[in-house]
Amino acid sequence: MVNKATVVFLLSLAVLGHLPQSLCWKREENSIFFDGAVFLHRNFALETDILRKVKTSGEVHCGLACLSEKDCIAQTYCAESWAKTKGTCYLHKNGIKDEQTTGVLVRREECTYQQYINFYEASCSRQCHNGNRCSYDYDNRRYACRCEPPCTAIQFRFTTLGMQGNSGPTSTAGYVNTTLKGAVTLHNGIQIWTVPFTALYELTVAGASGGDTSFSGGKGAIVNGSVHLTKGTELHLLIGQKGLKGTGQNVGAGGGGGTFVVFSNNTLLAAAGGGGGPGGQITAKNGDNGQTSRNGSVYGGVNGLGGSVCADEVSNAGGGGGFKGDGKCSTSIMCTFPRKCNQGGLSYLNGGLGGSGNGIGGFGGGGAADKKFPGGGGGYSGGGVYASSYTPKGGGGGSYYTGEMKPSNEVNAADGYVLIDFDGSLL
């Protein structure tokens, strides 16, 4: 039985005439028709965006062919010169705005262009709720309140990709079975990711812990909160790696790397401080945790600079790197005149490598240990070191957060990580 929508469609084609006109009809339940408008242009054709072409007996059958094709929005029917009731029907996946015919439609005798969507129509008069937005539903070929992709909660989890030590990952193979498959590239260990859709996200940033000896390395700081990210924004993520213990007896451990989330122009979005390393002998102290303030602890850096070392005996232990400044070592037996050294962790802006020595600092600016003395943690400002025979201790790196982000009461006892969570309710 022919339904009402079909009758309306057939009648519209019969009465439209030779001038561009429009006709709207309402989609019926379980019907192949949809809300929209018909633009009709006699003796014109659209020669682009063709899904496929079929032979039909007239404009009516051409219209039915388009309405039965999932992605068809418009059609061009060209009658055969020798048989007006037979011709070629071109099905188009894209249409035009009505005034854009010049230069888009090509004049062709015996051809008729018809379109089923008015792109200027206020097609969603109703208000959408629960994170839905009014948009064109290509599956059902109508305007509707729809969830922007993805329509369910999704989490992007950035890790160290199994890398250890003072340099970052060299392969993204660890993301193969995750939501980050094919979405991350690497540059000197820093992970580059492009925001896939505009939304309000929950961002969690965790620094790495310091290495362990018979004492514990400091835990990494965690900061989290809501951030609005725009589709196409490129983020650079340095995921801090845990510091390592040196080889031999009574040796210290390196500081943990800080974790950084940075825009492509080197503007910092958030950073979480890495934990300081512990000393190696019996009177040593556990490393300090990553700090929830911006400054590092235990002779730590301030305002994004690296940590220093205060020594009461000769030591080459390194301070943790900050966002802007490298970690330093001490000059002889004193707490002043810090010096550049291989054990100091590098700043984010200088690549974020951990310090090298006997007790490597973690990627993310962790300072390296030297003998029984530990390294400081990396972070927004690097952690420092107290190099004493009695109570050596590595300081934790500082953290950075603004806006809706804040420090967590929890800490991280492993490698760093970043979580970027989307929940449709946050749109």
TrEMBL record:
It comes from Desmophyllum pertusum. This is receptor protein-tyrosine kinase. Residues 199-420 form the ALK/LTK-like glycine-rich domain. One of its GO terms (molecular function) is transmembrane receptor protein tyrosine kinase activity. InterPro entries: ALK/LTK-like_GRD. Its main location: membrane. The keyword DNA-binding does not apply. GO terms for cellular component: plasma membrane. Its EC number is 2.7.10.1. The keyword Repeat does not apply. It comes from the Eukaryota. Pfam families: ALK_LTK_GRD (PF12810). It is found in: Cell membrane. It is a single-pass type I membrane protein. Residues 1-24 form the signal peptide. Keywords: ATP-binding, Cell membrane, Disulfide bond, Glycoprotein, Kinase, Membrane, Nucleotide-binding, Receptor, Signal, Transferase, Transmembrane, Transmembrane helix, Tyrosine-protein kinase. The lineage of its organism: Eukaryota, Metazoa, Cnidaria, Anthozoa, Hexacorallia.
